[in-house]
């Protein structure tokens, strides 16, 4: 059974930082491109960042320069370091694992940026 479990969300003030973690089980982790997506109320789910099994990263324009995605294949984990957070970063953040036709999602972790 495939599981992606996110953690690290919470309430943070504008300008603050959070580090999200996602731990995978039930997959051959180093085959997969891992990613973080987010969905704010009333909006579609959108890409935040992805990282391939070779370590190539891709970021949404809104994340460039503030967020950093990384992975630890031995730990079957992917991380999202978020700095200089803004109110518009408030959303549910989802971990994603994708390879070929296989596509898995975690249940999400809430990030709220507010003073």
Structural class: mainly beta
The coarse silhouette is: globular
Number of strands: 11
Number of helices: 0
The proportion of residues in beta strands is over 45%
Written as H for each helix and E for each strand, in order along the chain, the element string is: EEEEEEEEEEE
What can be said about the biggest beta sheet? 7 strands, mixed
Mean pLDDT: 97
The low-confidence runs, each spanning 5 or more residues with pLDDT under 50, are none
Distance N terminus to C terminus? 40 Å
Helix content: under 10%
Radius of gyration: 13 Å
Structure description:
The protein is an all-beta fold and 115 residues long. The protein is built from no helices and 11 strands. A hairpin with a 5-residue loop joins β5 and β6. The chain is globular and about 40 Å long. The model has no long low-confidence stretch (mean pLDDT 97).
Walk me through the topology.
Blueprint: E1 3-7, E2 10-12, E3 18-25, E4 33-39, E5 46-51, E6 57-59, E7 67-72, E8 77-82, E9 91-99, E10 102-105, E11 109-113
Parallel strand pairs: 2-11
Antiparallel strand pairs: 1-3, 3-8, 4-5, 4-9, 5-6, 7-8, 9-10, 9-11
Kindly summarize this structure in a few lines:
The chain is an all-beta fold. 0% of the residues lie in helices and 54% in strands.
